[in-house]
Amino acid sequence: MVGSVGLLAAAIAIGLGALGAGIGNGLIVSKTVEGIARQPEARGVLQTTMYIGVALVEALPIIAAVIAFIVLNR
Amino acid sequence: MQDLQQVYASQKKLIFFLLAFCALGWGLTPFKTVFAGLALGSLFGLYNFWLLVRRLEKFDRSLSEGKKVASLGTGLRFASGIAAVAVAIAIPEQFHLTSSVIGLMIPYVYLLADRIIYHVKHH
Q: In which compartments does the protein localize (chain B) (predicted)?
């Protein structure tokens, strides 16, 4: 049975995780678009780097969701 | 420059080695639940990464063709991460919870380490 503090903990975990990942993804994509606008011939390399960055940043909300789920089931 | 498919191929190779290691650990050591949890987590982690690679390539293709993009499948990846942990919570006598969470993050840790090694080698 989860108390209200547990619910709060899950909400904070997932909310802050999503916030951080949102800021991170925004920075990655904005810089990539800037780079492509400056050097359109480097599009492929920049896009691959962006995708890898996005994949890394995505680990954060996933782990936040997992932690929230664990907290809710304790 | 490696593309996503190459990263995924090397990722897959690592996970298969890790699964073989987990099978050995599960069979030969008393830490059965820890190795089973690690294998479960890394399988779901690999599935997550496969989904990510597939969706990002689809996204790339539809952008260059000028089509509309539906989604990047973030919800599905969240759900599969939660599914791994749900299995570990439901069957605690078979799967260790912490090790399955660690297993879930192995592809991402590998991706980071791979990038760092690549940059050290090429710059």
A: Cell membrane
- At A73, the amino acid letter reads N
- Residue B123 maps to a domain: no
> What ipTM was predicted for this assembly?
0.83
Determine contact: A29 vs chain B, CB below 8 A. no
Contact (CB, 8 A) for B40 and B15: no
For residue B94, give its domain range: 4-118
**What b-and-e string marks burial along B74-104, b requiring 16 or more CB atoms within 10 Å of the CB?**
eeebbebbbebbebbbeeeeebbbebbbbbb
In a domain, B54, yes or no: yes
Confidence tier at B73 by pLDDT (50, 70, 90):
confident
Residue with tokens 């190795």: B35
Angle at B77 between CA B71 and CA B82, to 5 degrees: 145
Amino acid B14 reads: L
| Predicted model pTM | 0.87
